[in-house]
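Data's thin. Show one?
=====
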Amino acid sequence: MPLSPPADYAPPAGPLQILHCDDALLAVSKPPGLLSVPGRDAALGECLMSQVQAIFPQARLVHRLDRDTSGVAVFAMTAAAQRHLGLQFEKRIPRKTYIAEVAGVPRDASGWIDQPLRADWPNRPRQMVDPVAGRAAQTGWAVIARKTSSAFLRLSPRTGRSHQLRVHLQWLGHPILGDPIYAPETLGRRPRLMLHAAALALRHPLGGAWIAFRAPSGFVPAVEEPRDA
């Protein structure tokens, strides 16, 4: 049976945290537990998109973060900017940096995961590794801090498949703590999915210069967050 949206969806309260705003581009910090776009059910209408458009009616969607993932999200302020940014994501130009706390401590200091992914159709929205029928997916990772039974990783996805980081780290044997789909046994150990989009760098739609946005995770102890995406 496909997984159903949670019946207890409760969008987090609080003002929209704006990181940057100009005539072409808007960057905000999404809290965990908030959908990026409305769900099919009326009860899932409150989302980051609706909050953004309540203040900036002209804002247009560029990309999405999972409901339980927090961090930097970018919107276009014009149709031309949306086309420009959409093409960048299609060509994998943006540089993305995520921070995650994972179960266990990896033996190596860093690594590269190259495992194709596809939907696990009988169990949607789950995704799964499939070397035969999956679509190419690559993720770089590096340990930035170690604890007794967990570690903090810096993640650099080359591609942007659905649930990519969550599935890749599960495949690695170090699932993200607090993941209700891929590591439900860790839910009691952390209050949320410990995955945060810490930084995003891309080319500005007006002029093409690189611009970077950052949002501290709030859950990495005594570790410098990435200065560059």
